[in-house]
Amino acid sequence: MIQLPLSKLSNVGTTIFSLMTQLANENEAINLSQGFPDFPADPELLSLADHYIKNGFNQYAPLGGMLPLKEQIAQKIENSHGTVYHPDTEITITAGGTQAIFTAIATIIKDGDEAIIFEPAYDCYEPTVELFGGIVKRFRMMAPDYTINWNEVKNLISDKTKLIIINNPNNPSGKILKENDIQELIKIVKDTNILILSDEVYENIVFDGNQHLSICQYHELKERSFLIASFGKLFHVTGWKIGYCAAPKSLTDEFRKVHQFNVFCVNTPLQLALADYMKNENNYLQLSQFFEEKRDFLREGLKNTSFKLLECEGTYFQAVKYDKISDKTDFDFAHELTINHKVATVPFSSFYKDKLNENVIRLCFAKKNETLEKAIENLQKL
User: Fold this and answer.
1) Which of 6, 137, 204, 308 is surrounded by the fewest CB atoms within 10 Å?
2) In this predicted model, what pLDDT tens digit does every residue of 214-240 receive, in sequence order?
3) Aminotransferase class I/classII large domain: from which residue to which, for each copy (predicted)?
4) Angle 287-302/369-379 helices, nearest 10 degrees?
């Protein structure tokens, strides 16, 4: 028998999102676990994709992406955040946000380099750092407010720190960074060579009149940052797997060295469809209101239950605490919900390295109202 080499990711298995979706399918449960909409994308966008496919735009795109789409992205960033990226040299189209994150980490991290992440953390950050020989240092945000003590973050900095990874708005907590957070981050990286990876895939899903504070709005941070975003979240087409990375030319040049040997380029006709669709700003400027209504619909349905609704400032995820319902771990409780009550969720412990159990689960409300109604009806019975 062939002796396989030691696994580079020996502690990594199938993601919790895939596991819970599989469990939902096996038990015919309502799937509020994995973060994807169950409603269709805009027919106009689908018609544009059809147009470009049928008219022969089906060959390789340039390495950095189709220029019309990059120009629209640059315009969106300038309109939203008042900052300029050169479309051709500072924006790269990627095969989704996760590929952009992977490539940015691969660009920076070498053996022994340290990267700081904030838990609860999206599950691709740590394995990718470790894949390239890096060491992860974690700051733990905790229920119910998931705030950051920047003095403690400062203590994590060493001469080996090469990267700080932030996720704003945060998945899974639904919290957003405030001006004070940004200013504290600026103080920490000032006079250092530390780079920043800013995962902002939910930037257009922010609630209650709050403003999304992008890393690119701050010169001190923009010059050292990879800004990551996703069209899957923006236009309800997660299966298209198209995102982008915006970064200064010096960083983009290095990013593309890795990108070209990872995926090289991204789906040509869909890029052109997105470029045309983005010309109408209303196709994304109304997204916050759209999802705020869904958030409120879910919260209203659960307010008289024994679930404690945690604050949700952005993303399309609602965190709830269930300690008045069950003393089971969040993993066991999520399984019980799926099997016995036909609602699939995600346990928060999956977003912590040490599987911290806070009796909190995550519900996705990027669903049709009929789907949410059925889930609420089941959850109200607990």
Assistant:
1) 6
2) 999 999 999 999 999 999 999 999 999
3) 29-379
4) 20
